């Protein structure tokens, strides 16, 4: 081997090492740009992990203008959680049709799961009149994650008025045990229902938290379910509350409060929307649980930003969320 070859090999090894450890910073509370350099508009996010290649699809509310007629669901795509490609609007006002009622509609908190039986991507979202009187969940489906989604239905699941909501795909070792709908029931309590096999309906409320909470984000760790929530103060921030189950069963879960893991009375000026389990780079085989929240910057909402921070588990019931201006995915 010539000296030239050795130098070349050394160069390649150093290159590989450096690119593997390229910092993957997540910044909170500042404007995030997509790969075109335009600000990301995808609020009250839900993340779908692509069933085929494990890439990430980020669905969220479009720019929060004061004109309801503009509001729809935007989508971004990423392989690394850092670089986001703008896919565009995947559901708009035009797609939504409710019999005997006319829009424009409130379209909030979209969440998407993939149904292995129908092979459809199924979106659930909070669908309402401008003054929040309908209290519906809306459903739309698409054969592909990038839409456009076709509107299917608007209704009150289990006959109960529904406001803030989320979906939780209960997946263990790669096998989906069921998908659950969690929502604010008439802003009086939190109700959880398992979805039917086609994910187009619910099968009755089997678990509840007896007080009103919203911004629900469920995740599973170490044989327990957790639910991050906010209190109800509209677009203004309030202290988060984390709940935990003491048993490995979501359908009939009983929840107890672990208080506010942030210690911040405003949850760092944010409201929860999702918790993403992300495969740890530092401790392979474990996960980093990423809190995803919205800094609405009320009252205008036009400058809303995102707060993504990793949870710390001091024990199963001592869970904290610390503020960090930026953190590196490689360190977790
Ligand atoms: C918040 C809720 C948002 C939106 C807003 C409307 O409490 O979390 O999703 O519905 O109220 O005022």
Automatic annotation (TrEMBL):
<dbReference type="InterPro" id="IPR023296">
    <property type="entry name" value="Glyco_hydro_beta-prop_sf"/>
</dbReference>
<dbReference type="InterPro" id="IPR006710">
    <property type="entry name" value="Glyco_hydro_43"/>
</dbReference>
<keyword id="KW-0732">Signal</keyword>
<dbReference type="Pfam" id="PF04616">
    <property type="entry name" value="Glyco_hydro_43"/>
</dbReference>
<keyword id="KW-0378">Hydrolase</keyword>
<feature type="signal peptide">
    <location>
        <begin position="1"/>
        <end position="18"/>
    </location>
</feature>
<comment type="similarity">
    <text>Belongs to the glycosyl hydrolase 43 family.</text>
</comment>
<protein>
    <submittedName>
        <fullName>Uncharacterized protein</fullName>
    </submittedName>
</protein>
<keyword id="KW-0326">Glycosidase</keyword>
<dbReference type="GO" id="GO:0004553">
    <property type="term" value="F:hydrolase activity, hydrolyzing O-glycosyl compounds"/>
</dbReference>
<dbReference type="GO" id="GO:0005975">
    <property type="term" value="P:carbohydrate metabolic process"/>
</dbReference>
């Amino acid at each position: 081997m010539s000296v030239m070859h050795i130098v070349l090999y050394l160069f390649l090894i150093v290159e590989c090492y450096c690119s593997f450890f390229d910092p993957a910073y997540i910044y909170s509370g500042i404007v995030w740009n997509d790969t075109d350099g335009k600000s990301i508009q995808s609020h009250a996010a839900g993340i779908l992990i692509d069933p085929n290649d494990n890439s990430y699809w980020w669905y969220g509310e479009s720019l929060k203008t004061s004109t309801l007629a503009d509001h729809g669901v935007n989508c971004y795509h990423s392989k690394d959680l850092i670089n986001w490609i703008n896919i565009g609007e995947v559901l708009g006002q035009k797609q939504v049709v409710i019999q005997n009622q006319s829009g424009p509609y409130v379209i909030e908190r979209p969440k998407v799961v993939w149904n292995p039986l129908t092979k459809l991507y199924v979106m659930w979202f909070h669908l309402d009149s401008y003054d929040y009187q309908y209290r519906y969940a809306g459903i739309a489906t698409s054969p592909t994650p990038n839409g456009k989604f076709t509107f299917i239905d608007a209704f009150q699941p289990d006959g109960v008025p529904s406001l803030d909501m989320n979906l939780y795909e209960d997946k263990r070792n790669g096998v989906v045990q069921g998908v659950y709908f969690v929502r604010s029931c008439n802003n009086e309590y939190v109700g959880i229902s398992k979805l039917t096999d086609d994910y187009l309906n619910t099968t009755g409320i089997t678990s509840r938290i007896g007080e009103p909470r919203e911004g629900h984000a469920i995740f599973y760790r170490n044989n327990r379910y957790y639910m991050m929530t906010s209190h109800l103060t509209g677009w203004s921030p309030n202290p988060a509350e984390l709940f935990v189950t003491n048993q490995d069963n979501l359908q009939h879960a009983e929840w107890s409060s672990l208080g506010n893991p942030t210690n911040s009375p405003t949850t760092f000026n944010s409201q929860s929307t999702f918790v993403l389990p992300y495969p740890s780079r530092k401790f392979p085989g474990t996960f980093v649980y990423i809190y995803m929240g919205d800094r609405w910057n009320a009252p205008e909402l036009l400058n809303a930003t995102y707060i993504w921070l990793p949870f710390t588990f001091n024990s199963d019931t001592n869970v904290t969320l610390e503020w960090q201006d930026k953190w590196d995915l490689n360190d977790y």
